[in-house]
């Protein structure tokens, strides 16, 4: 009993350390205001107004437009918009009730909610790592700490519109834990299976990529489902009928959700891409694949070596590749080869490998929707989009550190990485203090971006007239 109590005590201290790291890194973000897309999705969104009918949340897109129209962004996130609406209702003053736009002084309250959600997700990442790689608390601590302080998450946590990522990640992890609880035994716990489907629907209603968790449930069933079964052989055991029933339920529920979303939004994906936002969508032939590889290399660089970060990567921030001889093409092929080799090694070492394979599946599944491989998205690169796939990345890095078999070296390297990333995250938050500082920072990273310079000019002009008006 004493040993068990000691384990629980160590686990609690580790969880508190993870939460403290997340809070300290983002403490400076709480004084920020509404920036960039926050104005359209929150401050000026008609559905966030207290007087707006709640039914409009089900009929409008993330930005408050009629989702059936051709010019709609097709981002259907009613739970996220509902959280914005409740955020305003619970924190506004009596004098704010009739305001058409969300008052600026309420911005800190929105930042607090984002930070609380991020802390909860970080704690769930710790539990997720424990579940996938049981018996390795060091992996769980490093993975969750790395996730808590990773600089690429600044846009998702400090940018208020990033709440879609936070809520989606929260519900995705809850759905995963419920499904694991439902299938990790000799019999199906149907109440947990039902709850996992409910959380999956909530993830989808928070952000479109939430539907991916339903596919990962199938992957979990086949790879890690029952502790008594071995890989795919379980499908041919006496319990194969129950397994197939569960898979049929998950797949059917997925199809129903996708059909319902198509019925609501008319089109499943964005069709009116803007060349300014995503020039890759206008590339053709071999050039298209050159640039898809280049964009995904940028995502990989942001995960592994998060420097030169920007709130906007619009036209000409990353110049398009036109030649096969460009080094990005060779690098893209090398990364694809490395992933293929890693997957092959996972299949070869089935005992431990299937857990690694599941993490690779998680990383790939949440990465594909915005990779421009399956379909084009509304932005060329978005740092906030890496929030969900980075869960698997952090767990993989944490487990890889454990495999070094040199505890002192692993602990030293982990501490150094956490310290460097924490400093980078804290400093990156300062760019989000105001729109002026945000666009100045973006211009320093993307000096060739026309959109960034236009936004910077507009912000400076507005600031100048406000100062003149104040003086007069």
Radius of gyration: 23 Å
Share of helical residues: 55-70%
Low-pLDDT ranges: 227-231, 464-472
SSE succession: HHHHHHHHHHHHHHHHHH
Strand content: under 5%
Please state the average pLDDT score.
84
| Anisotropy-based shape | globular
Let me know the number of strands.
0
Helical segment count: 18
Give the helix/strand class: mainly alpha
Terminal residue distance: 74 Å
The biggest beta sheet reads: none
How does this structure look, described?
With about 475 residues, the protein is mainly alpha-helical. Helices cover about 65% and strands about 0% of the residues. Helix 8 (about 165-185) packs antiparallel against helix 9. The radius of gyration is 23 Å and the shape is globular. Mean pLDDT is about 85; it is low at about 225-230 and about 465-470.
Q: How is this fold's topology laid out?
A:
Elements: H1 2-26, H2 38-43, H3 56-59, H4 78-91, H5 107-132, H6 137-149, H7 154-158, H8 163-183, H9 190-206, H10 212-223, H11 240-265, H12 285-304, H13 327-348, H14 350-367, H15 389-402, H16 407-430, H17 435-445, H18 450-471
Helix pairs in contact: 1-5, 1-6, 1-16, 5-6, 5-8, 6-15, 6-16, 8-9, 8-10, 9-11, 10-11, 10-14, 12-13, 13-14, 14-15, 17-18
């Amino acid at each position: 009993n004493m040993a068990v109590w000691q384990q629980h005590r160590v686990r609690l201290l580790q969880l508190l350390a993870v939460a403290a790291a997340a809070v300290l890194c983002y403490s400076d973000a709480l004084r920020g205001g509404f920036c960039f897309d926050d104005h359209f999705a929150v401050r000026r969104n008609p559905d966030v107004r207290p007087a707006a009918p709640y039914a409009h949340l089900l009929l409008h897109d993330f930005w408050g437009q009629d989702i059936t129209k051709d010019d709609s962004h097709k981002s259907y996130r009613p739970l996220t918009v509902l959280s914005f609406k409740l955020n305003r209702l619970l924190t506004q003053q009596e004098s704010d009730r009739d305001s058409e736009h969300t008052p600026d002084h309420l911005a800190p309250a929105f930042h607090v909610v984002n930070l609380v959600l991020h802390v909860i997700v970080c704690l769930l990442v710790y539990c997720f790592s424990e579940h996938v790689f049981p018996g390795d608390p060091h992996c769980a601590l490093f993975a969750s700490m790395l996730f808590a302080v990773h600089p690429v998450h600044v846009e998702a946590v400090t940018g208020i519109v990033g709440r879609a990522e936070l809520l989606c990640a929260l519900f995705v992890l809850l759905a995963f834990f419920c499904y694991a609880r439902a299938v990790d035994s000799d019999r199906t716990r149907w109440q947990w299976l039902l709850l996992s489907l409910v959380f999956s629907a909530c993830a989808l209603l928070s952000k479109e990529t939430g539907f991916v968790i339903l596919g990962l449930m199938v992957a979990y069933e086949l790879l890690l489902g029952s502790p008594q079964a071995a890989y795919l052989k379980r499908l041919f055991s006496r319990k194969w009928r129950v397994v197939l029933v569960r898979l049929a339920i998950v797949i059917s529920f997925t199809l129903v959700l996708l059909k319902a979303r198509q019925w609501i939004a008319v089109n499943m994906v964005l069709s009116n891409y803007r060349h300014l936002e995503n020039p890759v969508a206008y590339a053709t032939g071999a050039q298209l694949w050159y640039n898809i590889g280049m964009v995904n290399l940028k995502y990989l660089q942001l995960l592994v070596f998060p420097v030169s970060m920007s709130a906007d990567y619009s036209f000409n921030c990353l110049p398009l590749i036109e030649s096969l001889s460009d080094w990005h093409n060779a690098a893209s092929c090398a990364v694809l080869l490395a992933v293929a080799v890693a997957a092959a090694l996972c299949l070869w070492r089935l005992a431990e490998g299937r857990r690694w394979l599941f993490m690779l599946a998680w990383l790939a599944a949440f990465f594909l929707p915005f990779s421009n491989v399956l379909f084009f998205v509304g932005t060329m690169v978005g740092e906030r989009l890496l929030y969900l796939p980075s869960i698997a990345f952090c767990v993989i890095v944490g487990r890889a550190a454990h495999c070094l078999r040199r505890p002192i070296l692993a602990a030293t390297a982990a501490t150094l990485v956490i310290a460097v990333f924490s400093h980078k995250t804290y400093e990156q938050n300062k760019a989000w203090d105001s729109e002026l500082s945000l666009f100045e920072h973006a211009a320093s990273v993307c000096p060739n971006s026309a959109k960034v310079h236009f936004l910077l000019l507009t912000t400076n002009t507005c600031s100048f007239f406000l100062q003149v008006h104040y003086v007069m």
